[in-house]
Each structure stands twice: as structure tokens, then as C-alpha cells.
């Protein structure tokens, strides 16, 4: 079966048709943020999950100048969330580290680290509709890109 694409972007890229032996399902994607879920997977196998953040063991805990936290975003890009957190924690934007940009049109969970956050308890009060800190711990080290293995995607059609 040959199916013509409906996407302008795909046509621009030269992807005009799909060839498949299966009939189309005629579903819709991304009607709600919860239809596209992005969760980080760390090198040690830890998955930063949306639905059970309190059970996630945040790696590299201990006394130190850093806070490691689980950031849950709904319909918000990573940079806007980091800006909001930097203002709430009264730290510079560059004091917050993250392991990658996540899709703004999604529900996502990712690990962040914040340097020199004097009042980390303020993080748990941040519930701006789109941004929430689900959990945090102290750490001697900031996040490093090599800690990220990849992302787990859940797509609801």
C-alpha cells in the first residue's frame, strides 16, 4: 500500500510517500502533552521516570555544593525551565546543568544539577503549571554529559 504524507515538513525533505504492507491506523499524535513522554536513561541504567520520581535513586549523592534534582516539564522547553529555576534559586543561568534539551511539546522528566543553591527546599515549592521539581538530593559533583545514555520515548496515538 502506498500512502501519501500529510506533513509539509516531510514533503520539503522529499519524503512524499510511505510504502507499507499494513493499512493506515488513522490515529492522531500529540493532541495532548501526555501523548509524547520523554524520560532520561542514565548510563547506570537509571530511568528518570515521570510517574514514580520518588522511587528514582538519583546518582552521586552526598555532601557538596550541588543539588541534583528531577525536573518534570509539561509543555515547556528546557531553557525556559532552567531560566525559571535560576530565578527561583537566585543563581546564574549557567549554574544549572542538564543532560540535553527535551521537546517542548511533551511531558518530560530529566535530571538537572544546580550549583550553590542556598535554599534547596524552595525547589519543592515550584509548581508553575509547566515546571515542577519532583525530588532533589545534595551532591559533590555537577551533571556531566557522559552520564546520559539516551532518552526513552512513549508515544500515544
UniProtKB/TrEMBL annotation:
<protein>
    <submittedName>
        <fullName>tRNA pseudouridine(13) synthase TruD</fullName>
    </submittedName>
</protein>
<dbReference type="InterPro" id="IPR042214">
    <property type="entry name" value="TruD_catalytic"/>
</dbReference>
<dbReference type="GO" id="GO:0001522">
    <property type="term" value="P:pseudouridine synthesis"/>
</dbReference>
<dbReference type="InterPro" id="IPR020103">
    <property type="entry name" value="PsdUridine_synth_cat_dom_sf"/>
</dbReference>
<dbReference type="Pfam" id="PF01142">
    <property type="entry name" value="TruD"/>
</dbReference>
<dbReference type="InterPro" id="IPR001656">
    <property type="entry name" value="PsdUridine_synth_TruD"/>
</dbReference>
<dbReference type="GO" id="GO:0003723">
    <property type="term" value="F:RNA binding"/>
</dbReference>
<dbReference type="GO" id="GO:0009982">
    <property type="term" value="F:pseudouridine synthase activity"/>
</dbReference>
<dbReference type="InterPro" id="IPR020119">
    <property type="entry name" value="PsdUridine_synth_TruD_CS"/>
</dbReference>
